[in-house]
């Protein structure tokens, strides 16, 4: 119930070379769980922003009243990666030893922001729900940790997809929960939900 909301949320988007250069933003209002209304959209051209500094942007909403105030910083990606199983970042024994040394007890106060990182191997899914009329699905998998999000490629026409991808996240809060969600790609429409699992970091 506010015309001037303050969210104060930070989101980290991991920008890879195969992504488009425009950041699309939508503002919605919600009456209840069933009714939502689009209040406006705006775009940010990532390539036009200077690197390694915080850019204060006031963006007017297209075709709607109001504007969105945000801080956007573009910086080199550190601690995050997507790779195939054959080039797994922790597969090398010498690298594992360096990691163990970096996070041993005597070094635990060297950098208070460097809590650690999480590596997740997404292998496959089995017996997924058929979302298409053909009796198949076009599944992809989304991993979320805090406000970080990475996703696999889509495996088309398959209820038992194999992704075989390795995802690495920096950990910012040891109390975060890793959420792994499987969706069915549906063209230009929003993807269909196929299932979800939540894994608290403290349980790993």
List the helices and strands and how they pair.
Elements lengths: L21 E9 L5 E10 L8 E7 L6 E7 L7 E4 L8 H10 L13 E9 L14 E7 L2 E4 L10 E10 L5 E10 L2 E12 L4
Antiparallel strand pairs: 1-2, 3-4, 5-9, 6-9, 7-8, 7-10, 10-11
Keywords:
204 residues; 1 helix; mainly beta; globular
Describe the fold and architecture.
The structure is a single chain. By secondary structure, the chain is mainly beta. It folds into two domains: 1-77, no CATH class; 81-203, C2 domain (Immunoglobulin-like, Sandwich), CATH 2.60.40. Helix content is 5%, strand content 44%. It contains one helix and eleven strands; from the N terminus they run βββββαββββββ. The strands form four sheets. A four-stranded antiparallel sheet has the order 8-7-10-11, with no helix packed on it. A three-stranded antiparallel sheet has the order 5-9-6, with no helix packed on it. A hairpin with a 2-residue loop joins strand 7 (139-145) and strand 8. The radius of gyration is 20 Å and the shape is globular. The mean pLDDT is 86. Belongs to the MCTP family. One of its GO terms (cellular component) is synaptic vesicle membrane.
